[in-house]
Write a structure and sequence with these properties.
single chain, about 400 residues, alpha/beta, Rossmann fold, eight-stranded mixed sheet, five-stranded parallel sheet, 14 helices, about 35% helix, globular, binds cytidine-5'-monophosphate
Length: about 400
């Protein structure tokens, strides 16, 4: 990212002090940073320290710029290769989602024509609030890249999602944005994790998928420069920075989200989608009657996302599926490739003794039209890198 320009908007939250470290690390990697402070950010970090670290003028007042003598706000908003908001408060996210422009930061965000990345940070209840979640969905829909937040202890004493991503992850996401690899300009959809199929509001049917392989793939594709759309069920592994994240719960939600994202250049279905859902899931918690009557669950088949993508009108030029088998791996996976209509199937043996499900390593066979190619046992991150390189080759 040497030589790139970042307009760094610092909003007023306790995590603002971490923005200083972001500036330092970006500059170490040759990025020039133009800082903008909101009025409340100045309560947390001083313009002097921001200016000293960035070796640049700090902008904060809209009306300083309106005489256009030095640099107007339109010019400032377009002077960078990327606009980053670190931290992005609930208030600034709400302004962005609604197109408000009542101070310099929000005006720049409305006026800019460059990509925008935000690193939200706020109290867990503010993050979980439906208003913030609605604003988040709007911003993602507008093409804003969202880094974090992560789960952890917070300055306010509570615990949960809302804590700003680590500085290293934010810098990595910025680096990924500028990555100029063989997949630059290509959009790749990745499904990952398990799905949860509700029985009632407190119970669900799930599987043991950790989301590790799908997440590693998203990272590897991102590192080759792809614009990654990551549709994830409730996984153990947090989604990676530098990709667009779409959290879902059920197979039907995953399919709806995936269809919304088409067309893309390639789709990789690494999710362990539940094959069945419970018909007529109860809106109320199912009670134990006391007379020994046991509930009966009726199942319906879930939509097959991989087959729907592969056979649909907006089919990507490359569709990759996974086949987790416990016996006759190659035979079953080869049949699956034909049945679903995808281009490649990455097959693996998930018998408990292999330790693959939930583990760090994987032994896969890639099956395509030409036949089966067995790969050695290797860490899931290496499987992901090799597969991402193969995808880059195929997309040319
Ligand atoms: O049929 P099976 O579940 O073994 O197929 C595995 C492959 O199909 C994986 O790529 C998985 O992501 C995908 N799949 C899907 N939708 C389903 C079931 C599986 O996309 N309902």
């Amino acid at each position: 990212m040497d030589g790139k320009k970042v307009l760094l908007i610092i909003a007023g939250g306790i995590a603002a002090f971490k923005a200083l470290d972001v500036i330092r690390r970006l500059r170490e990697r040759g990025v020039s940073v133009t800082p903008v402070l909101t009025k409340s950010a100045k309560e947390f970090v001083t313009p002097l320290s921001v200016s000293a670290l960035s070796a640049a003028k700090v902008y904060s007042d809209l009306f300083d710029l309106t005489d256009e003598a030095e640099m107007g706000h339109i010019e400032l908003s377009r002077s960078a290769d990327l606009v980053c908001v670190v931290p992005a408060t609930a208030d600034l996210m709400a302004k962005m989602a609604h197109g408000l422009a009542d101070d310099l930061a929000s005006t720049l965000l409305l006026a800019t024509d460059t990509p925008v990345m935000i690193a939200p940070a706020m109290n867990v209840r503010m993050w979980d609030h439906p208003a913030t979640q609605r604003n988040l969905a709007t911003l993602v829909g507008d093409g804003v890249t969202v880094v974090g937040p992560v789960e952890g202890p917070m300055a306010c004493g509570e615990f949960g999602p809302g804590r700003m991503s680590d500085v290293a992850d934010i810098v990595e996401a910025i680096a990924a944005h500028f990555a100029d690899g063989p997949l630059a300009g290509k959009s790749v959809l990745v499904t990952s994790g398990p799905t949860h199929e509700p029985i009632d509001p407190v119970r669900y049917i799930a599987n043991r998928s950790s989301g590790a392989q799908g997440t590693a793939l998203a990272v590897a594709l991102r590192d080759l420069g792809a614009d990654v759309h990551f549709v994830t069920g409730p996984a153990d592994v947090p989604p990676p920075p530098g990709v667009k994240v779409y959290p879902v719960q059920t197979a039907q939600e995953m399919l709806d989200q995936v269809q919304d994202l088409l067309p893309v250049d390639a789709a990789v279905c690494a999710a362990a989608v539940a094959d069945w859902r419970v018909v007529g899931a109860s809106d109320e918690k199912i009670k134990k009657d006391g007379d020994g009557t046991l509930p009966t669950l009726n199942f319906a088949e879930n939509p097959d996302i991989l087959a729907t993508i592969s056979q649909g009108k907006k089919r990507p030029s490359l569709v990759v599926g996974f086949a987790a088998e416990t016996e006759k791996v190659i035979e079953h996976a080869t049949a699956k490739r034909a049945r679903k209509g995808c281009d490649w199937i990455v097959a693996n043996d998930v018998s408990p003794e292999t330790g693959i499900m939930g583990g760090d390593r994987n032994t896969v066979t890639v099956i395509d039209a030409k036949g089966a190619e067995a790969w050695d046992d290797m860490p899931k991150a290496d499987v992901a890198r090799r597969l991402a390189a193969r995808i880059a080759d195929a997309l040319g």
